[in-house]
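User: Structure with EPZ, tokens only please.
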Amino acid sequence: MQKFIVRGGRRLCGELTLQGSKNSALPIMAAAALCDGDCVLKNCPELTDIYAASRILNCIGCKCRYSANTAVITASELTTTAIPASLMQEMRSSIIFLGAVLGKAGECTVCLPGGCELGPRPIDMHLAGMRKMGADISDYGGNIVCRAHGRLHGAKISLPFPSVGATENLILSAVNADGETVINNAAREPEIADLCGFLRACGADIAGGGESSIVIRGVERLHGCEYTVMPDRIAGATYLAMAAAAGGEIILTNACVQGMEPFLSVLEQTGCSIYSSEDRIYLRCGSRLKALSDRVRTMPHPGFPTDAQAVLMAALTTAEGTSVFEENIFDCRYRHTDALVKMGADIQVMGKIAVVKGVNRLHGAKIEATDLRGGAAMAAAALGADGITEISGISHIDRGYERLEEAVSILGGDIKRV
Ligand code: EPZ
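Assistant:
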């Protein structure tokens, strides 16, 4: 089993080009199954979740070749509409293939993705929207069988909560449907706008991707295209949080500056100097961070992103004063706190609230990553800590960060994969 060995206490300095966005690339790969002809996806990050998506595409009869951050996907008639449980369970986002396969073939069988390390992850909103578009959906012993009886039809769908996955799945179901679909209270994450940008480049008729109301007029066919996946705003937040935790001066290039604004404005309040231009972010952190006087509330975009909660918390463990977090998106998103406490942090968790009293220093420890962003937070804490930290369970981190140890080393951090 691989581990990261982190020797803390070195300031991070230098320039890093950000990877492409995992959470954008995954739905775009599913969307490519809807197209006739080749889709060439550039800036597609090299991650275990991307390999899992490639395996699903190959399993349903599309050809997916991946090398040098480019995925080439050739879709044709699907050879199966049932995605095996073994592939569905490789990653939670496999559920995004439901909308694509149902939209293309008029039927799809998947097993329930179930809960995950972040707590229960229901898909009721995905299914309710698909039912409104004419799908019959039944549950046979944990397998969800969806049938459209011909083409899905357009519908007016109001989501009870702006779910990212439900919005993506309904867009994928609607692009080839008969007539107009309106999704109200849609998720506004930048990754939704990127998915819509890709689909438009393939000939889809979509207005409002990235806004709370999305209008999709179904078209007969989609064609292939060449598309560049947007930069990863959460990887960006992570490397900035690492520099805030360890101190230093870094520049991120190929950054999604506008999409990162909700994170940047909060990080700036800790005393870091942050300047951004079109696709570059400069951060300098020369002294001890200040705790945040306002509670950090995770919310759907453009609120503070839940995916950046753990890494910001890691940086604030050694801030001057007390910071308070409120996690509003997932039930189990404080699993990193035990490891941070083992490193000397003072964190009290009560339900959705975490109170972080800044301590002077953290120290190295043997800890285990239990989820993707929590694992990245442990690496951030370790970079600022005294001594050596050993992080096991790094397969979680590899799901979302392209060779994290290389990126951190470019910035001068001492981290090795063993
Ligand atoms: C996406 O997950 C991201 N994953 C997550 O990133 C991210 O944390 C999340 O959006 C929120 O921004 C990908 O894009 C692949 P949701 P998703 O549907 O789509 C509830 C990471 O670290 N809900 O917006 O699963 C749900 O339980 C990952 O990269 C329902 O109740 O998130 C949750 O509490 C982790 N019923 C909330 O909504 C539904 O039908 C938000 O979930 C759907 C969701």
